[in-house]
Design a protein that fits this description.
The chain has 3 helices and 6 strands; from the N terminus they run ββαβαββαβ. The chain is α+β, with helices and mostly antiparallel strands and about 100 residues long. The protein has one domain: 2,3-Dihydroxybiphenyl 1,2-Dioxygenase, domain 1 (Roll), CATH 3.10.180.10. A 4-stranded mixed β-sheet has the order 3-6-5-4. It has a two-stranded antiparallel ribbon with strand order 1-2. The N terminus is likely disordered.
Length: about 100
């Protein structure tokens, strides 16, 4: 099931950035989203770990798809970049957020 991106479902986010890493803090609304689904299943916790992979993004997504992960569930585009939430929750205990750059 493909779910809408966080930005379209009425949630709020804060992204403190220290230059070498970013911590995303989300306040999730009740609308359907991967975040709401995670909270309903697990309660509060770490929804995803993000990896900035530069030009290797398409290759990383292809390899994860070949490994059996759902790579088409949540894809977002914003000015200058994009992201893909990889559904790895059942295997890794957390989803992966793959993006070329911040």
């Amino acid at each position: 099931m493909k779910l809408p991106s966080f930005a379209t479902v009425g949630g709020r986010a804060s992204e403190p950035d220290n230059g070498s890493w970013v911590l995303e803090l989300h306040q999730v609304g009740e609308e359907p989203s991967t975040f709401r689904e995670f909270i309903n299943k697990h309660g509060n916790g770490v929804h995803h770990l993000g990896f900035e992979v530069g030009d290797a993004r398409d290759e990383v997504i292809r390899e994860l798809k070949e490994m059996g992960f759902d790579t088409e569930r949540t894809i977002g585009i914003y000015p200058g970049s994009s992201w893909t939430i990889v559904d790895s929750e059942d295997v890794l205990g957390v989803n992966l957020n793959i993006k070329p750059k911040r």
